[in-house]
Amino acid sequence: MRILRLPLLLAGGVAILTALQAPVLAAAPAELPLAYIGPGAGFAAAGSLLVLLGTFALAFGIILIWPFKAAIKVVYRRGKTKAKVKRVVVIGLDGFDPKMAEKYADRMPNFARLREQGCHSALGTSIPSISPVAWSTFATGVDASRHNIYDFLTRDPCSYMPVLSSTDTRTVPRNINLGFAKVPFGQRAVYKILQKSQPFWKLLGANMVWSSIIRVPITFPPQKFKNGTLLSGMCVPDLQGTQGSFSFYTSDESQLGAATGGQRFRVVRRSNTVESNLKGPPGADGVSMKCPFSVAMDAATGKAAITVGKETVEVGVGEYTPWMEVPFDGVQGIARIRIQRWDDEAVSIYVTPINIDPESPAMPLSHPFVYSIYLAKMLGKFSTLGLAEDTWALNERVIDEAAFLDQAYLIMDERKKQLWDVLDKTKKGFVTVVFDTTDRVSHMFWRYLEKDHPANEGKDTTEFVDVIPELYGKADALIGEVMERLEGDDDTLLMVVSDHGFCSFQRGVNLNAWLRDEGYLVLKDGAETSGDWFEKVDWEKTRAFTLGLTGIFINRKGRERVGQVEPGEELDSLCREIKEKLEALVDPKSGERAINEVFLTGEVHDGPYADMAPELLVGYHRGFRHSWDCAVGAVSKETFSDNTKSWSGDHCVDPRLVPGVFWCNQKIDVEDPTLADIAPTVLDLFGVDVPAYMKGRRLFGSMGSGDAAPDRLRSTEQANS
Questions:
Q1: Which secondary-structure segment (H or E) carries 120?
Q2: What is the pLDDT of residue 383?
Q3: Measuring CA to CA, which residue among 530, 352, 391 is closest to residue 16?
Q4: Of 22, 44, 388, which is closest to residue 237 (Cα–Cα)?
Q5: pLDDT of residue 166
Q6: Does residue 76 sit in helix, strand or coil?
């Protein structure tokens, strides 16, 4: 069986899902789930003409039924609590850090003006402080034990292999039932979101309040809800089925070889022309489809004509093409191409991951289905990949910092257009748009803030030293534009939030190696190290293990296939023993404690999904994090290692060390707001009853709507002690 390698993500947005994506694992275990369903498995794209006709028909239908819906809304809302506002706008700035915002306050006059109008505060994040967990808490108003997302990854307890926490995408047989027999009729794709509870905009819609949701993480596949539109964010795959596999074409032999997060191909230049193929999804025969492309350089002008399919564009070296259509048999993607190098000695060409074309979507990207088509028709093609900024291409050094920044800001500009569109069209109701650029740039340029960062070795340390300060200035300019568009609108409440803050990531910690040294994890045949996905782990002797970025699983009887630890007293004793030892763990290089606190999941979370979560959640000190190899279930020789990747900043630490930010154009009645407070607050502002299960509080009004998070997780004093 041919299986696509599981796309893994790390950290606040991008790296395990990218760290593992060597695109195809020829002999991958059958347990690895498909992240993408190809055309040969019953995955079909609608014809562009039919889709266009459908879009116009839908728009015409909406116009026809609008008067009836308005009348129904008036009748339905009669007797309900009156809304306190006409519109609520929430701008999400992923990874925006309160300490950095304070440091660069002189670049942020618009945020200062927003604070003067209303308020500004740190915003308590989720535990663990990782993007899929935090944004799920934002959407649902509950903690991880109630929305079921603890990481980008979890393990299958039956196989110990990794599975995506948020999405299940697979094929199932399609049959015709004749009563006396079932006739096979190919296969069909099934997409299922694994996030539990429900997003608050679904409750708004049920109460006739419109919502426009743009790129909130963990909204793929898009869930249907009444009275609103949604464009999916984090976890939308590329056309190959990964969370973002770049392609790199070069004549330089030194740049060939295995590529984490992508694929490299050797090319030969002939008469100033390079020809090759873009790799697509598997076809009906299981073999990856191909799309020819060529690059022809004009030496006189220094411009190259790049042809993909029937489309040709002209760019110079170091310039991105616009989105180009990449046609395959039955399905179409889009990609940008950038010539990295073209000189007498070598040619190097970078191709972004092939995104699903929003104008001809091969799988649902939005709700309703035609919404992505509408946006593409109105605003132009745009990135659809959940992790759009190609962090792993920079980690692998197939692109440089300039190329990464150009890409990140092109994507930010696309998101702005989408924001202006929904602001213009949503005069009443709820609007939220999440910008990922603040997170991705912080991850990749943090090393420039620290001269002693291990990631600086062999790399430039001066040219982009102002990138993060400039990033905060760009965020301020964005908020200034939003405030300008809302000028004079006293019935719109504006909030700016981030899911978590940021800090340095200098040292990686392989907790599997530590567990081995302490006798909790055992390798077969006396091996000292083990490859990815617990290659040599002896499960009959292992009591604890970790993968992903957030915690340690106990190999528990009755849950894991080869469980060794009895639930109850034995389990509790083991967890406390590991907790005590880890909190004393010292980095031999610096003499510093690596871990601030290990949280026992059962003590901080009491929801129905805590039982399948890691038993221990690791709250690192600033500067430390799960190492890259630890995140993929490997066991290294040493516990500690330098982080030398360009990915040099992170936030997978003690959540109290990395709160997010909160600005609002109105004063709030709570001194210590948290991410969980946003959902009940928005519901209350629109006069919608807040469900008793929500854990947050209303920020406007003294009465809380749920149980607040434990005080020790809300305070930063203990974390900093």
A1: strand 119-123
A2: 98
A3: 391
A4: 388
A5: 86
A6: helix
Q: Which helix (H) or strand (E) holds 405?
A: helix 401-425
Cβ neighbours for 687, distance < 8 A, ≥ 6 positions apart: 80, 81, 82, 83, 84, 207
Give the phi and the psi of residue 249 in degrees, each rounded to 5: -115, 125
> Which residue among 163, 192, 221 closes a domain?
192
Domain boundary among 192, 222, 241: 192
577: closest CA among 543, 546, 605?
543
- With a CB cutoff of 8 Å and minimum separation 6, the contacts of 251 are 266, 267, 268, 269, 274, 346, 347, 348
Contact 104, 474 (CB under 8 A): no
Tell me, yes or no, whether 103 lies in a domain.
Answer: no
Task: In whole angstroms, give the CA distance from residue 289 to residue 550.
Answer: 37
Cα–chain center distance at 361: 20
Specify the 3-state DSSP secondary structure of 381: coil
> What single-letter amino acid sits at 134?
A
Closest listed residue to residue 217, CA positions, set 406, 61, 11, 33: 11
Specify if 650 maps to a domain.
yes
Tabulate helix, strand, coil % of the chain (nearest 5): 30, 25, 45
- Mean pLDDT by runs of 10 across the 721 residues of the chain is 32 40 30 31 41 59 59 57 93 98 98 97 98 98 97 95 85 71 68 90 98 97 96 94 93 86 94 95 90 96 96 97 96 97 95 98 96 98 97 95 98 98 97 98 98 97 98 98 95 98 98 98 96 97 97 98 98 98 98 98 96 97 98 97 98 98 97 97 97 95 51 48 43
Instruction: Dig out the tokens for 506 from the structure.
Output: 């200098």
Strands (E), 416-484: 429-435
Pairing of strands 211-214, 429-435: parallel
Sheet holding 347-351, edge to edge: 262-266, 246-250, 347-351, 337-342
**What kind and span of H or E run contains 401?**
helix 401-425
User: 222 in helix, strand or coil?
Assistant: coil
- Cβ atoms 218, 166 nearer than 8 A: yes
Give the pLDDT of residue 171. 67
Backbone angles phi, psi at 11, to 5 degrees: 40, -175
* CB of 686 closer than 8 Å to CB of 715: no
DSSP state of 566: -
Q: What is the dihedral of CA 447, 449, 450, 451, to 10 degrees?
A: 90
- Count of residues for the chain? 721
Residue 257 is assigned to a structural domain of this protein: no
Neighbour tally for 607: CB within 10 Å: 18
Cα–Cα distance, 663 to 53 (Å, whole number): 42
In a domain, 621, yes or no: yes
Cα 510 versus chain centre, distance: 23
Tell me the per-residue pLDDT of 570-580, one tens digit each, with 9 for 90 and over. Answer: 999 999 999 99
- Structure confidence at residue 348 (pLDDT): 97
Q: Cα–Cα distance between 439 and 468 in angstroms, integer? A: 10
DSSP structural state of residue 28: -
Report pLDDT for 259: 73
Query: What pTM did the predictor assign?
Result: 0.89
| 188 strand-pairing partners | 172
**How many structural domains comprise the chain?**
2
DSSP 84: S
C-alpha–C-alpha distance, residues 91 and 496, integer Å: 5
pLDDT for 34: 34
Burial of 389 per CB tally in 10 Å (0-12, 13-18, 19+)? buried
Q: Which domain holds residue 595?
A: 506-654
Q: For residues 110 and 635, give the distance between their C-alpha atoms in angstroms, rounded to a whole number.
A: 48
Q: What is the pLDDT of residue 413?
A: 98
